[in-house]
TrEMBL record:
This is UDP-N-acetylglucosamine 4-epimerase. Catalyzes two distinct but analogous reactions: the reversible epimerization of UDP-glucose to UDP-galactose and the reversible epimerization of UDP-N-acetylglucosamine to UDP-N-acetylgalactosamine. The reaction with UDP-Gal plays a critical role in the Leloir pathway of galactose catabolism in which galactose is converted to the glycolytic intermediate glucose 6-phosphate. It contributes to the catabolism of dietary galactose and enables the endogenous biosynthesis of both UDP-Gal and UDP-GalNAc when exogenous sources are limited. It comes from Notodromas monacha. Its cofactor is NAD(+). Residues 7-173 form the NAD-dependent epimerase/dehydratase domain. It holds the Pfam family Epimerase. Pathway: Carbohydrate metabolism; galactose metabolism. Coiled coil: none annotated. One of its GO terms (biological process) is galactose metabolic process. GO terms for molecular function: UDP-glucose 4-epimerase activity; UDP-N-acetylglucosamine 4-epimerase activity.
Length: 593
């Protein structure tokens, strides 16, 4: 299984392509999807209505996430017209034999590997497991001839030319399964060569389902797709092409973890980052901050961040600041070269749910590229510990409160999906590089500021969080405060959230960092909240009491795209039990002070 970061370039390639299409007003796109989005499906044959998301490998996740990105783009830019063709095990070659599957990289698919054995370039063909719940014990797949797949793409393109579909997925397969053993037998008949086989253990990480085959009914009905090659012997004809050499896999090194002393904060000049920098300095850490000041105020020459100036004043300790965009990999690597970084807390990224609905390109490209570059830099410089700024938005609208870490995840907006994708990327990287040590802290509505009043939520961009917006109304910068919907299924009709004081969140990051220093977790997630919900109306009332100012609150319509769940608050017991986390500020009036 390939867990290398290179897999996630699939996402960046998709984003660049879609941006180019938008810029040049090209709207029709057929995407090379994959049946791996279904994971281990419970129902065979698999239809397009089967639940996606139980993906078992990084490749499949990139395909699933590319599909979700496309759907987000269609929602934001409805002029796009997109089809994803989900393949089921391509096989075969053109009848001429002039072209076929002839990769530069190691043969991973079944027919090229059989070809290697047949021509003597490999000693034997490896069968990964013969103890599956199938008639002959080997995995069953829907092998589909490459020429039938090619025809399917042309049919999909014609569909887009003649009809507005928006977004649609189609399975491309033959609708029946063939086992690995059946393909070996067919290859021997087609090639006239005896194939020496060796049965070994199943592939790791439980990535192989016993049976996966398509129900191609939708493609047949809507695209006029009819697979012509369904005989396994015919599939194996004209595919026995020689491969001159194979490359060896690179072995990974296991490196011992080191004690954390210097922490790199990405986005450390921002709201939560600056508070975390203060607490880390108070706990004796050295702090290095990387921030491009896209959302924070600084000097005209970009050499100083005003929030960090105030943190240094409060603590009497220095901070090394670098005005660098994480998307600039070369500059990021220079920072790792300059400083002896022991651990990373990753805050940087676009963070507005609402803006993400209208700026999916920016959110996907920025948030994912930043993490990829950061992990690359960490791997190259042997930095293993990272605390990730996660989000409760990964849970979507669960319908269940309080939410714990084992609840179903299913983000409903581009921002939340970038957080979810980043978590999955981190887990994939960990699988390939087990020396990494990672925690994601999923926040539930940060609020408040340091008691000094020197640092707080002071963004360059228009306020979207509740407390800055209330403050804007209190000081007269805006006439009203809009409550977006009062018809939710809650006691007062307004949304209920788990508002968590920023200083409690900062403490949580230090506790998570100490956990990584003392224990090799691999990967873990913790919810950060107070464990109870406060409604928007209750918070408005609390702000009025704390500030002594009357807020002119008006009722507006709900936000679009159904992005707001009526209730969302956490069960923080895991963080309390395993990190020693204990929120100190739970009173809404105190939060607003």
């Amino acid at each position: 299984m390939f867990g290398d970061l290179i897999m996630w370039l699939n996402l960046l390639g998709m984003l660049n392509l879609l941006e180019a299409m938008k810029e040049h007003k090209v709207q029709n796109l057929v995407f090379s999807g994959s049946c791996t989005v279904y994971g281990h499906p419970e129902k065979i044959p698999v239809s397009e209505e089967e639940v996606v998301g139980s993906v078992k490998n990084p490749y499949g996740r990139t395909k699933l996430y590319c599909e979700e990105i496309m759907q987000d783009v269609v929602q934001a830019h409805p002029e796009f017209n997109m089809i994803s063709l989900r393949y089921f095990n391509p096989i075969g070659a053109h009848p001429s034999g002039e072209m076929g599957e002839d990769p530069k990289k190691i043969n991973a698919n079944i027919v090229p590997f059989l070809g290697e054995v047949a021509i003597g370039h490999a000693e034997k063909f490896t069968v990964f497991g013969d103890d599956y719940d199938t008639p002959d014990g080997t995995c069953i797949r829907d092998y589909t001839h490459i020429m039938d797949l090619a025809e399917g793409h042309v049919l999909a393109m014609k569909k887009l030319e003649n009809e507005r579909v928006g977004w649609r997925a189609y399975n491309l397969g033959i609708g029946k399964g063939l086992s690995v053993k059946e393909i070996i037998d067919a290859f021997e008949e087609a090639s006239g060569r005896k194939i020496k086989t060796a049965v070994v253990e199943r592939r790791p990480f439980n990535i192989d389902a016993p049976k996966v085959m398509a129900d191609p009914g939708r493609a047949m009905a809507e695209l006029d797709y009819v697979p012509k090659c369904t005989d396994p012997v015919q599939m194996c004809c004209n595919t026995n092409q020689p491969f001159e050499e194979c490359i060896e896999k690179v072995l990974q090194k296991n490196l011992a973890m080191s004690e954390s002393k210097t922490v790199l904060l990405t986005g450390g000049a921002g709201y939560i980052g600056s508070h975390c920098a203060l607490v880390l300095l108070q706990h004796g850490y050295n702090v290095v901050v990387v921030d491009n000041l896209a959302n924070s105020f600084g000097s005209e020459d970009g050499t100083r961040a005003f929030s960090l100036d105030r943190v240094q004043k409060l603590t009497g300790k220095p901070i090394a600041f670098h005005n660098v965009d994480l998307c600039n990999r070369n500059e990021l690597f220079k920072i790792f070269d300059e400083h002896s970084i022991d651990a990373v807390i990753h805050f940087a990224g676009h963070k507005s749910v609402q803006r993400s609905l209208y700026q999916p390109f920016d959110y996907y490209e920025n948030n994912i590229m930043a993490l990829l570059n950061l992990l690359r830099a960490m791997e190259a410089h042997k930095v293993r510990n990272i605390v990730f700024s996660g989000s409760s938005t990964v849970y979507g609208q669960t319908g269940k409160v309080p939410v714990n870490e084992d609840d179903h995840i299913g983000a409903r907006n581009p921002y939340g999906r970038t957080k979810l994708f980043c978590e999955q990327i981190m887990q994939d990287v960990l699988r390939a590089y087990p020396e990494f040590n990672m925690i994601s802290l999923r926040y539930f509505n940060p609020i408040g500021a340091h008691e000094s009043g020197e640092i707080g939520e002071d963004s360059k961009k228009p306020c979207v969080n509740i407390l800055p917006c209330l403050a804007e109304a209190a000081i007269g910068h805006v006439e009203t405060f809009a409550i977006l919907g009062n018809d939710y299924d809650t006691p007062d009709g307004t949304c209920i959230r788990d508002y968590t004081h920023v200083m409690d969140l900062a403490d949580g990051h230090v506790l998570a960092m100490k956990k990584l220093e003392n224990e090799h977790l691999g990967w873990d997630v913790f919810n950060m909240g107070i464990g109870r919900g406060i409604s928007v109306k209750e918070l408005v009332d609390a702000f009025q009491e704390a500030s002594g100012k009357k807020i002119n609150a008006v009722i507006g319509e709900r936000r679009p795209f159904q992005i707001d769940a009526p209730k969302m608050f956490t069960d923080p017991s895991k963080a309390i039990r395993e990190l020693g986390y204990k929120p100190k500020c739970t009173d809404p009036v105190e939060m607003c002070t």
